[in-house]
Design a protein that fits this description.
globular, mainly alpha, 7 helices, 234 residues
């Protein structure tokens, strides 16, 4: 019988540990590969990301009879997966396709893994797919950082922030058009599971707290590079 998901319970902490250890090991080992093998590994991760995002809605909707309104690939983490997947497959890489998922992924996917929007624990298939999907987003980002040696730049920070804020408008419109329980980017309601959004005002006013918090989280993810740049100049 499937047990209910328990935040920071044994299964959650084990899944977090395994996910981050695997990401760390692969990102370190990638540095010992030849340039050709690094590119091959990047393409494998990119294909996995895009294939997972393309098939996941069909698996949920047709395989597990989930409501289509809530399982379309329209969440921020879906966008992160697609962009970093395309980035890893590109021969001439687009910096924006790295920087947007850098902020969205490290902020969003990490938060998602720490506070999963799950009802049931393993062996529920959604438990596996949730950690696999979000884990490989972070793998793609850290592989690009640690192995391919890409990084975000401060001059692009506000551009990424403005793009994120502007995207709220079409995502909100999509939520309203779909109706029902559609809640992409959690604009209509807070996640079912426990999260920091529980500390915000009641929806839809929760976004007044979420939006500035997201910008703070984005900037925090950049701080290591800010420190590194200042150290190099010293």
């Amino acid at each position: 019988m499937t047990e209910p998901f328990i935040l920071f319970g044994e299964q959650h902490t084990q899944a977090l540990t395994y996910s981050f250890v695997i990401i760390l090991i692969l990102s370190v080992l990638g540095n010992f590969l030849s340039n050709k093998m690094q590119e091959f590994a990047a393409k494998l991760i990119g294909v996995s990301l895009l294939a997972f995002e393309a098939t996941k809605p069909f698996i949920y909707i047709y395989g597990f009879d989930k409501p289509w309104e809530t399982y379309l690939p329209l969440h921020m983490c879906n966008f992160s997966a697609v962009l970093i997947g395309i980035f890893l497959l590109q021969k001439k890489k687009n910096q924006m396709f790295f920087e947007l998922p850098f902020y969205w992924g490290i902020g969003g996917a990490t938060m998602a893994l720490i506070t999963p929007d799950l009802d049931f624990a393993w062996p529920d298939i959604e438990f596996f797919m949730f950690f696999y999907g979000h884990g490989q987003i972070l793998l793609g980002i850290f592989f690009a950082l640690a192995v391919l040696k890409y990084r975000p730049y401060l001059q692009n920070f506000w551009k990424m922030a403005v793009i994120t804020i502007l995207l709220l408008i079409p995502v909100l419109v999509i939520n309203l058009i779909i109706g029902g329980e559609a809640n992409y980017w959690y604009l209509m309601n807070t996640p079912d599971g426990e999260s920091l959004m529980d500390l915000m005002p009641a929806p839809p006013f929760h976004m007044l707290g979420v939006a500035p918090l997201a910008l703070v989280v984005f900037f925090i993810t950049y701080i290591p590079f800010l420190i590194w740049d200042k150290t190099k100049k010293a």
